[in-house]
Design a protein that fits this description.
The structure holds 2 protein chains of 2 kinds. Helices cover 34% and strands 25% of the residues of chain A. Chain A is an alpha/beta fold. A 6-stranded mixed beta sheet of chain A has the order 6-7-8-3-9-10, sandwiched between helices. The chains are: A alpha/beta, B alpha/beta.
């Protein structure tokens, strides 16, 4: 990364070289009696693409809303870009970009009107920051006078990202930006994030897609307001408990049901055309082969594989 | 597998002005099959599903669903199918049972049948204790499973699922697919769209749509072999990029 990067003055991003961009200390938040975040700690450094994964109700959206100054924590302290989310909310609002999970642009404004509106709210000119959104926004140019509500899912998401970027935020927060987006558009979207990161932007993103989680620099796995694990994807994968096997056979579904009923098999999950399983202590793969063959399953092939982030997620949550 | 055809589509065309959303689609779906309907955003999936479920009529072409001509008798089609989509599933300010009673009533079941079947359904799902809870207070994962169970409550021939697992975590998605398999084993044909390519591999057959046309159709194993790749993700990207 150089001082002449597209985002301009690098000093903006490293307002203090060693301080984190996001710093959460013992953040708690309840909705009525239901805890959403419990003594939550997290640090995110400048230039990271930081991913958050977890089931519904994990607290991801609550954290994003607190960091975006949209709601207040019940207790604890959160700093964004060195500013307190409660006291300095004005500074933070100007300096971050937030793309909420639900499409929240103006459906009855056109593509261009939405972008102009966001630029004007932040007091910037589109042309001054157009280089930032060029790759994302240019496929939308032919549709600039179409109403946002009439766009396809992939285009809506490109427009929402353009609007979140137009004021050149130092931190970009994306709440499940690719839900409902097809596999090709998802890959393009993540390529864009990669470019933004190269230019020095810090990105905090949640996703239900584990292939996307694998692309993050660091990841937090959360459940019911607690951190289950945090680290680089490869670090999380190295903490997988036990040896993982992949199994293919003539009848995946029947094999799944048989394996589920066996006490010698500690876990079994469908993974596309295959099954992934871990075995109880001392159990050999031959046991599984024989178990299936005895029940009429043929073409049984079983071998060891390295665990993916999805395997780790399944292990933590089941 | 039984080869009885439950959906037959021949030369289906749907135009919106000069835009062709469905461009001469032809395919069949067998009874009890899990049929995956894949495609990029805007490829024409939802348009076709709306026609197949009697909500919209084709510009031209033959569409037979459960033996009924869908363009002429859409109301008949609606009675023999179930439908669930990601955006709308159940009424948040009604309880679990009230939702079931509403849908059962719409499909003409008597209150006695509804009570009997809902007790059976809730105990099978293991959530009898949620019966009188407002949907709003039911966790999303359970809502999704309930919505599916409600969609097949009237024991339809076919159930259409439009992105039923969008935004759902890996554990809950697998639980949802267990329900799909159970329904399929009970003889219900499942017509499902998804953006998760591992789920495409759970289907008996998939059809990949791009720019309103069918670009590939077949069993996931065969498709991977014919495209010479190891995952449906790669098949999808090849098909979508080459279109």
């Amino acid at each position: 990364m150089t001082a002449e990067s597209k985002l301009g003055c690098r000093a903006n991003y490293f307002w203090s070289m060693n301080s984190p961009i996001v710093e959460c200390r013992s953040i708690s938040k309840k909705y009525g009696e239901i805890p959403a975040l419990v003594n939550f700690d997290i640090d995110i450094s400048a230039g990271e693409v930081f991913g958050m994964i977890g089931p519904d109700g994990a607290g991801k959206t609550t954290l994003f809303r607190i960091l975006s100054t949209l709601i207040l924590p019940d207790s604890g302290r959160a700093m964004v870009l060195g500013h307190d989310v409660v006291k300095d909310y004005r500074y933070i609002r100007k300096s971050i970009g937030f793309m909420p999970g639900r499409f929240s642009l103006y459906q009855d404004l056109t593509v261009e009107e939405n972008l102009k509106f966001y630029a004007s709210v932040f007091g910037v000119k589109i042309r001054d920051n157009y280089h930032l959104i060029k790759d994302i926004y240019s496929p939308l140019e032919p549709f600039r006078s179409r109403r946002a509500g009439k766009l396809s899912g992939g285009m809506k998401q490109k427009l929402a990202l353009s609007c979140a970027l137009i004021h050149k935020p130092m931190l970009l927060i994306l709440d499940e930006p690719t839900t409902g987006v097809d596999a090709v558009s998802r890959k393009e979207f993540w390529d864009h994030l990669g470019t933004l990161q190269t230019d020095g932007m810090t990105i905090l993103v949640s996703t239900p897609y584990m292939d996307e989680a694998q692309r993050c620099g660091r990841l937090a796995m959360v459940q019911k307001g607690h951190l289950l694990d945090i680290g680089k994807p490869d670090e999380i994968r190295s903490r997988f408990n036990g040896t993982l096997f992949q199994l293919t056979s003539s009848d995946r579904y029947q094999a799944l049901l048989i394996c589920r009923n066996s006490k010698q098999i500690s876990s079994v999950h469908a993974f596309g055309q295959t099954l992934h399983l871990t075995l109880a202590d001392g159990v050999q793969t031959e046991f599984v082969e024989n178990l299936l063959i005895d029940q009429g399953i043929v073409e049984v092939v079983i071998h060891e594989i390295p665990p993916s982030i999805e395997d780790c997620f399944m292990q933590y949550l089941t | 597998m039984e080869s009885e055809t439950i959906i037959e589509v021949r030369d289906l065309v749907k135009r919106f002005g000069s835009f062709i959303a469905n461009d001469h689609l032809s395919f069949t779906v067998a009874k009890g099959e899990i049929f995956g309907f894949l495609g990029a955003n805007g490829a024409g999936k939802t348009t076709a599903i709306r026609i197949l479920s009697g909500l919209s009529s084709p510009t031209s072409g033959y569409v037979f669903v459960a033996g009924i001509d869908a363009s002429r008798y859409p109301e008949q089609v609606k009675k023999s199918i179930g439908y669930m989509c990601q955006r709308f599933s159940l009424y948040e300010d009604l309880t679990v049972f009230e939702n079931i009673r509403l849908y059962g009533g719409v499909y003409g079941l008597t209150l006695k049948e509804i009570v009997l079947r809902s007790d059976e359904m809730l105990s099978r799902l293991g959530i009898t204790d949620l019966r009188d809870r407002l949907i709003r207070s039911v966790p999303l994962g359970w809502r999704q499973k309930l919505a599916f169970s409600v969609a097949i409550f009237h024991q339809p021939n076919i159930v259409f699922l439009d992105e039923p697992t969008g935004g759902v975590d890996p554990v809950t998605r697998r639980q949802f697919w267990d329900l799909i398999y159970e329904a399929s084993r009970a003889g219900i044909t499942v017509f499902v769209t998804t953006h998760y390519m591992d789920e495409a591999e759970y289907c008996d057959r998939v059809c990949i749509l791009s720019e309103g046309k069918i670009q590939a159709i077949g069993n996931p194993v065969e498709l991977k072999r014919s495209f010479n790749v190891t995952s449906m993700d790669e098949v999808f990207i090849k098909v979508a990029r080459n279109a």
